Amino acid sequence: MKMSARNMLNGKVEGVTVGKVMASVKIRIEDPNMITAIITQESVNELDIKEGDVVKAIIKSTEVMIGKE
Amino acid sequence: MKMSARNMLNGKVEGVTVGKVMASVKIRIEDPNMITAIITQESVNELDIKEGDVVKAIIKSTEVMIGKE
Amino acid sequence: MKMSARNMLNGKVEGVTVGKVMASVKIRIEDPNMITAIITQESVNELDIKEGDVVKAIIKSTEVMIGKE
Amino acid sequence: MKMSARNMLNGKVEGVTVGKVMASVKIRIEDPNMITAIITQESVNELDIKEGDVVKAIIKSTEVMIGKE
Amino acid sequence: MKMSARNMLNGKVEGVTVGKVMASVKIRIEDPNMITAIITQESVNELDIKEGDVVKAIIKSTEVMIGKE
Amino acid sequence: MKMSARNMLNGKVEGVTVGKVMASVKIRIEDPNMITAIITQESVNELDIKEGDVVKAIIKSTEVMIGKE
Fold first, then answer.
1. Which H helix or E strand runs over C11?
2. What is the ipTM of this complex?
3. Which of A1, D11, E43, F50 could bond D29 through an S-S bridge, CB–CB 3.0 to 4.6 Å?
4. By the 8 A CB rule, do C49 and D68 touch?
5. CB within 8 Å: B62 and E62
6. Average pLDDT for residues D32-48, to the nearest whole number?
7. What does the DSSP 8-state code read for residue A42?
8. Contact call for E66 and F49, based on CB within 8 A
């Protein structure tokens, strides 16, 4: 399946913190960039997301802001 | 000002397409990763965003999804 | 690829309106429900989205609100 | 009050999981489609959302992505 | 209908810019605060949003970030 | 750093509820308006967000909906 989401960054999971409803997943996309993804605890279970997994961080382009000095 | 948004990626603007209300900004964060940011035409004007600018792509962590093969 | 996004609704494209940067896509998921998706003009082109296409409307669960009478 | 949000899907609550801050609400919109909504625990309390409730799942159209085989 | 969205700010429309797909609406919530809402051109038409209208700006709490000096 | 996000509202923190992954922050922007921001527990810690802090609530304009009677 091809997706309309414009941003797909390859990375490796470096940490997972699971709460009752939500979970935080740390994805190293390359040094020094780390992405934090907040997804449901249910998704972490169903996709069996764990340290060392090769994953994609997917972001709809309307969700990206720009900062400029 | 420090921001709660967890994801800030350094990049360089490689292209800007401006419509009447919205604009698309292409940001090279590093080879081979390109980020597309959809922001307002007004923001492009006020921040004077143009090709070659050094910028940050900023993403709230609740907006990041994960894909896994 | 499996995705963390919890909501995937099967539907058929009933209309596409394309602007310079953004596009509106009408997806019939079943009578009487129609979904409007605002995606980039670039995505419409790359995925060649047109009337009659069978597609999925994908929504991260943190983006869903609830209304109750 | 009329809302700008384009997507309102009628459904029935089939499950609620409440954490300290967030809550997950499962809404059956029709077979076989289930919607997961992540809202605040506070909203679940204030709207008294519980199994069997008739509700609307509300989604801003800029939050909808499209997948196509 | 009661909504799960936690943030509803009363304001008055001070300007509307309409593109082919999207529209920008400026809402004065009180001096000196102005809210910019990007909604569909279709919503502006259906709700007949125009200068002087008394409206609510509605924001899901997961979409709010915090900045601190 | 200047940001593309169009909406920055000055306020004071009136309450913080911290869960394992997410946190809810109540920000008084002026009477009678209160903003609820759901951010990560990690952000609350790193920015040391606590009652009485002067902060900005930051909202991308694509995340704002409009309601009209």
1. strand C7-18
2. 0.97
3. D11
4. yes
5. yes
6. 96
7. H
8. yes
